[in-house]
Design a protein that fits this description.
Distance between the termini: 34 Å
Strand order of the largest sheet: 1-5-6-4
Radius of gyration: 18 Å
InterPro entries: DUF2293
Protein name: DUF2293 domain-containing protein
Largest sheet: 4 strands, mixed
Order of helices and strands: EEEEHEEHHHHHHHH
Helix content: 40-55%
Strand content: 5-15%
Pfam families: DUF2293
Structural class: alpha+beta
Number of helices: 9
Organism: Streptomyces litmocidini
Shape: globular
Length: 229
Amino acid sequence: MDLVAPVVVEPLRRRRCSECHRGPLDRMIVEFNAPVCLDCADLGHLVFLRRGDTALTRRAREASTLWAVVVRHNRRRTRYERQGLLVEEAALAEAERACLADSEARAARRARDAVRRAAVDAEITAALLTEILRLFPSCPADRATEIGVHASTKGSGRVGRTAAGRSLDRGAVTAAVRASVRHVDTPYDSLLMQGVPRHQARTRVAPAIEAVLRTWREDGGSTSGRERG
């Protein structure tokens, strides 16, 4: 089966997302001639790998279930030029391990780890983690931690860094958990790579997402009145 990689554009002028209206956008996709931010396009969990290291790029692409090509328009040459890839963080880590013989790859890994550690705000992450486990008491602790860290990464614009996220709005927290379930516990990413339109793919995996959230909500107490996101 041929894979259809999404194309992500680095816009030359200020653009705002047509769905969430956030902006200006550093990177976006174009759907129905309208800009869509990476979070709304379900690509926000991917990390950027700049072009230049052929071996690292190849290994990261092969290890990533979902990946996207990043391009930017060169006005002088009147063409789009490839800037790199967006890949899953775990795939990039696996590719870097495979390239450990390369000193530049080792340096890049250390720099990336340092940036990630510096980006995590412990207080926001801890509060978000507590709220995730309150709303979803049966969510595995390691998954709750993963969701909390991802959603509260400094400078990401993800839910943990929005006003709703900082106020621990139930809908915002549920949205972060739902996004994690979509990518980790369903074949959603594979559907996108098969060329299934994003909205159709979401519809197809919605029952599986609800089943996981229902299980995670269950505990010894009442769950009546809780939002399902």
